[in-house]
Amino acid sequence: MAGEAASAAAAGRLLLAAALVLAACTVPVAAQAKSEADVLNEFRAALRGPDGGPPGELNQWATSRGAPCDVNATTWPRVKQCINGRVVVLQLEGLQLQGAAPDLALLAPLQGLRSLSLSNNNLTGAFPDVSALPALRFFFDPVPEQARRGDPRRRVRGPEGASEA
Questions:
Q1: Residues of the signal sequence (predicted)?
Q2: In Å, what is the CA distance from 120 to each residue of 21, 27, 64, 87, 165?
Q3: Strand ranges (E), 115-160
């Protein structure tokens, strides 16, 4: 009888361990990777044009049914280049963007993004933090006045990550 109880306890522990392993292997839906279309639309929603909402030229992003890098995706204005199905160049210059510079961390899932332009807009505030975009090699935005005057609180990263004043 004691052997049966021990065997039942061992089977119970084995069943519990299997359930824990299965639970750990299950990926919640919210943790799944976002599509590049979802990422761009979240970023679009954070942008402010002259009327206070996202720039009208980017409204097609919200209604597009295809991925930004589909061969026939003509509904993704300002997505200028894709390589291997990933957005590589995003040109948002001259959209009359207003207010604080957007949070570039929203674009972090775009792992292929190498060039981003926000120039010729009316953005204010701190120089955007590009550290969330490790593949980024070209960023076009006006340099803040503090950086031009050599403000020690502003650092500009060179191409190799070296800090320059």
A1: 1-31
A2: 53, 42, 26, 22, 24
A3: 115-117, 122-124, 138-140, 156-157
pTM confidence score: 0.68
Strand partners, 86: 83
Other beta carbons within 10 Å of 43: 22
CA-derived radius of gyration, the chain: 24
Residue 158 CB partners (closer than 8 Å, separation 6+): 164
33-164: CATH topology: 3.80.10
* Cβ–Cβ < 8 Å for 143, 127: yes
SS (H, E, C) 26-85: CCCHHHCCCCHHHHHHHHHHHCCCCCCCCCHHHHHHHHCCCCCCCCCCCCCCCEEEEECC
